[in-house]
Amino acid sequence: EDKVVQSPLSLVVHEGDTVTLNCSYEVTNFRSLLWYKQEKKAPTFLFMLTSSGIEKKSGRLSSILDKKELSSILNITATQTGDSAIYLCAVEPLRGYQKVTFGTGTKLQVIP
Amino acid sequence: DGGITQSPKYLFRKEGQNVTLSCEQNLNHDAMYWYRQDPGQGLRLIYYSQIVNDFQKGDIAEGYSVSREKKESFPLTVTSAQKNPTAFYLCASKDRGVNTEAFFGQGTRLTVV
């Protein structure tokens, strides 16, 4: 059974801090790893990392995939209160859109 | 506007009742998913469907049922066999293409009263 574990489960930081969220996975025939942000209800897509694209960056957010260690990190620099959310990691197997397995999520709270 | 619509947003169920959660998408996506989210937790897969008239159990399918009679619709029924149905339910859809992300609906919060 595919497995995705995120750490920490929750995190409280002050505005301006830099945070690193972790995701480790065990999946048969890995295809891609995705990061989502869930502020209230619907998760929204952040990044997709694959064998051909192991590092992504958008503004203050960046993510790296370590295929050797079967893990990924999501970095957020200069955090803002608007970054407060649950960050979800998901892995997708090689065969298209079969079981997409999500992790436990990391709840980030950024306080002023 | 393309997207996924879940209804209702809030649902109250009496013990012993079956209820059906609606999920409709106009993105022309082949794959659709139902996830359950409990407070402070990630998403757990209930059922998924890759094409019309076909669906597979996820990790926590017991007490749930689905149908996929139309490409755009993937309703989830929470049966009385589901012992702890109070949760937030999210529907998602995904294109067939390589390396595509899933799009989510706004969710349905189900409470057993």
Key words describing this protein structure:
heterodimer, A: 112 residues, 6-stranded mixed beta sheet, 5-stranded antiparallel beta sheet, 0% helix, globular, B: 113 residues, mainly beta, 7-stranded mixed beta sheet, 4-stranded antiparallel beta sheet
User: What's the total count of β strands of chain A?
Assistant: 11
Number of strand elements of chain B? 11
The helical percent of chain A reads: under 10%
Which series of helices and strands of chain A comes N to C? EEEEEEEEEEE
Unreliable runs of chain A: none
Distance between the termini of chain A: 41 Å
Strand and helix order of chain B? EEEEEEEEEEE
Question: Biggest β-sheet of chain B, characterized?
Answer: 7 strands, mixed
Query: Strand portion of chain A, in percent?
Result: over 45%
Mean pLDDT of chain A: 92
What does this structure look like?
Chain A has 112 residues and is an all-beta fold. Chain A contains no helices and eleven strands. In chain A, a hairpin with a 5-residue loop joins strand 4 (30-38) and strand 5. Chain A starts with a strand and ends with a strand. By secondary structure, chain B is mainly beta. In chain B, 0% of the residues lie in helices and 50% in strands. Chain B contains no helices and eleven strands. Chain B has strands at residues 4-7, 10-13, 19-25, 31-37, 43-51, 54-57, 64-66, 76-78, 87-94, 103-104, 108-112. In chain B, the strands form two sheets. In chain B, strands 2, 4, 5, 6, 9, 10 and 11 form a seven-stranded mixed beta sheet that branches. Chain B has a four-stranded antiparallel beta sheet with strand order 1-3-8-7, with no helix packed on it. In chain B, strand 4 and strand 5 form a beta hairpin.
